[in-house]
Design brief:
The protein is an alpha+beta fold and 125 residues long. The chain contains three helices and seven strands. A five-stranded mixed sheet has the order 1-4-5-6-7, with helices on both faces. A two-stranded antiparallel sheet has the order 2-3. A hairpin with a 2-residue loop joins strand 2 and strand 3. The mean pLDDT is 94.
Length: 125
């Protein structure tokens, strides 16, 4: 049975909070990505890591080297950060990935926050 998008994003956020609770802040993005992939798997949530995001331009698909950190259930894009604070450019990046992949919901997760809920944004295209 396919999860509703709201329920799916809540489960993803719960998994991300668990990773942040276990690891805390201060590690590299790749560490959080690997641990979040494990946590999603433990929760039986299908996810792919480092997924190519090609650019379609005038009828041609171009591989420009863009990679989505994690795509969950082929519907939700997760963009992981370990920055002092999220900036508008991070929102723009995720919104562009959503558009290019044809997805509607994305989560921007800044693991360099003392409380992950403060470093979380849910974006809808």
């Amino acid at each position: 049975m396919e999860l509703l998008e709201r329920e799916l994003t809540e489960r993803i956020i719960g998994a991300a909070i668990e990773v942040h609770r276990e690891l805390g802040a201060g590690l590299l993005e790749s560490s959080y990505r690997a641990c979040l992939m494990r946590e999603l798997s433990l929760n039986r949530i299908r996810a792919e890591c480092e997924v190519a995001v090609p650019v379609a331009y005038k009828g041609l698909r171009l591989d420009c080297g863009f990679r989505a950190d994690i795509i969950v259930e082929d519907r939700v894009i997760l963009e992981l950060k370990t920055v002092e604070r999220l900036l508008p450019v991070h929102d723009a990046q995720l919104l562009t990935y959503l558009k290019l992949r044809g997805c509607h919901i994305g989560l921007l997760l800044n693991f360099n926050s003392t409380n992950l809920r403060n470093g979380l944004r849910r974006l809808v295209r």
